[in-house]
Amino acid sequence: MSPFKKAFGLLQQIGKSLMLPVSVLPVAGILLGIGSSKFSWIPLIVSNMMAASGDAIFANLPLIFAIGVALGLANNDGVSALAAVVGYLVMVATMGVMAMVRGLPVEFIKGINLDTVVLSGSEIIRNPDPGGPIFLGGIVGIRSIDTGVFGGILIGAVAAWLFNRYYRIKLPPYLGFFAGKRFVPIVTAFAAIALGMLLSYVWPPIQGVIRTFGMWAVAGNPSLAVFLYGVVERSLLPFGLHHIWNVPFFFEIGDFVNAAGEHIHGDIKRFFAGDPTAGILGGGFLFKMWGLPAAAIAIWHCAKKERRVEVGGIMVSAALTSFLTGITEPIEFAFLFVAPLLYGVHALMAGLGFVLMYVMGARMGFTFSQGFIDYVLYFVMDTKPWLVLVLGPIYAVFYYSVFRFLITRFNLKTPGREDSEPAAAVTGGAAEAGSLPAQVVLALGGRGNISALDACITRLRVGLVDINKADPERLKALGAAGVVQVGNGLQAIFGTMSENLKTDIEEFLGSTGPDQPQTAAPTTPAASAKAEPVQITPESAERARILLGALGGRENLREVSPTALTRVRVVLMDPTKVDPDTLKTAGVGLMQVRPDTLHLLVGVGKAEATAAAMQG
Quick check: pTM over 0.90? Predict the structure, then answer.
């Protein structure tokens, strides 16, 4: 695989892993928004508790991002999260010591200057000089260099890398207690010391660049900044990289000092902290609530007459999803691949929407996405939110007109206008005989073709052994709004069902049985008589011997079974005894389905004989 494809795959993994920490923002925004509004029908003490609770989440976002990134990059193993917490604390403490040694100016050190501050789980540390300022770190009151969420993302990635490398490490018997996963938090702590020392030199100039860009975006030329944000964000969305682009805008740009003297950065964080200049990304409400739904209606109206009912059902459902939640992929992927021109124009119009709302003076907050739900939740905190209701219908007409003109003028093959018949949906007997997870696995080339599996809010992200075995058209027939392929990675856009679908597929992969869903057939004595015992060849016996040695011996196996033509499913007594290097040397692929369950990719037609030889 080329370096570009490897880097692209890594960026996609990081972008996906950011979704877990971002998912806590809605509850933080709701708590802080309602609590700060001081509604008369809510007791004051309840409002204060809600505001403090929401603020505690925003104050500790770097740690939350560290945990989320570690989990996302380490197959959701809890030990990686513990390692990330340990690493973050050590890194922050190390940078604090280095800041004092280097005598860095106060602006590079996170601090406050009030006599008292109350934050959940935090301790205030005073400067040794009684008259000096009070400093507050991201957590537990550690005075340190403020790396924001970038520091959390970085240490989370380091913790995940160390976990993936060392979670099966073997140590001498007298250190056996610290072997395996217990070794990961320990080595992460030492790595965090080195990282903290490095960041104490590297981060201040980087922070200066970020602050300069942030001030340009907020005060220098905000109109151009929000336009670029909108165009680039939409352009990166098909590749799943828009989450990375969002981070500096959401959590770093701008600077606001609240009543407690704390410096708050990031458009979302500043908005909920009460900064009247924050909320410059409200243009998303225009095209997510109005523009794209109108584009969906245009696609519906431009469909061939005999297919309008079918296309209308799909487009109206996607339009409603975009309006309510701000999730736009079901609409965008309907025309992205068949009419790239439309998507390019859409990206430009989205950027113009941000400029329009900013110039008109709208300052609006959100936590999940710019949909109707966020619009209602934070309406009382917004500035000029009514502009969405005034400009929205106008923008809807604009989108509808542009889309309809381009589709008809250039005969774009949007849904319902294709020359060939659409792929048949999987219905009837096939759907009944096999569940959706089984059908998706088949469309991905079978169990033996899946090397990695994950999901974000709207996408099923799959690593494949051979991308050519995947069937994008079948995935679309199963309900995917679109399919993106880069290298050996594939993304199928199944919408908000993606996370649950991933879990269902994992359960299917962990089960025994054939790939192909089959209807039940009566078993006759004659059929049983034809079944022949599996022939164990010398090659199979030798392969089994190597695998047993790499898996900790036959006594470490709870269960062994062929689960496809190419893979053997093993359930282990002690997963830490597995030696992945030996498996790799033997040419056997490895996929961890559960903490104690592995799939061994042994090759086409070799699974049954290998499993039989391993069983002895």
Answer: no
